[in-house]
Amino acid sequence: MDRPLTFDKLHNFRDLGGYATPDGHRIRASRLYRADSLGKLSPDTPDWDRFLSLGIRTVIDLRHPWEADHHGRVPSHPSFAYHNLSIEHRPYNQAALTHDLDPGPYLAERYMEVAEDGTKEIRRALELIAQAAESNSPLVFHCASGKDRTGQLAATVLALLDIPTPTIIEDFTLTELATPALLADWSARNNGRLPTWRAFGRAPESAMRLFLAALTSRYGSIAGYVTKALGMDAATLFSTLRTNLLEPPEPGNPQG
Predict the structure, then answer these.
(1) What is the rounded distance in angstroms from the CA atom of residue 108 to the CA atom of residue 104?
(2) Is the confidence at residue 255, as pLDDT, over 60?
(3) How high is the pLDDT of residue 1?
(4) Cα–Cα distances in angstroms (integers) from residue 119 to residues 9, 201, 227, 229, in the given order
(5) Chain-centre distance of CA 189, in angstroms?
(6) Containing domain of residue 174, as a range?
């Protein structure tokens, strides 16, 4: 399937549909999206018309409120509800990092901070995703570049849907397709300068691999994290997501 969706202003808008579980189920298309900042959308533009045509009913903005205020939030529209859930409690400036900093371990550490700081907001995001799944209504979640906070929530949801770890990591690294455009946007906002950190906008597989390994080491599994850190019933959440977001295996092809 065509996972990335084409917009003029958005560079990292993707459908999570089509990923397969080991038993041959696949995530339903056009139900769960991840994106970079929807604050770049403007009414009465082809991008806005394309966005509304997706029938999205829930928008989750994972940015800090000051980011939404400064850089804009998705325009209001009666067709969807907007939720600002800032899962990152300790902001950091990636563009200003020193060029020699290894992005994999560094980002994995930041993701662990978010996983443990933002439990209230992550729990609420998962509740909204489960509600959207039960009501058969499309949902999108996003941050600024659609890479770190968005990638972390996407990894959590994909793991709960029993998507294999290599596939979760592969989904994370797809942001690399958008890196040049994200870098160009940053440069345009900053008088043509380039970030100090050469890894700005990159999504190395090591970042997600190390994060998932650390989360599993600390909590035993993603389900353990959901239960112990988020205080949710992981089995119920797992069942709700799988029942409503997964298609059955194709006849005669039980393994997908």
Answers:
(1) 6
(2) no
(3) 58
(4) 31, 25, 11, 7
(5) 23
(6) 14-247
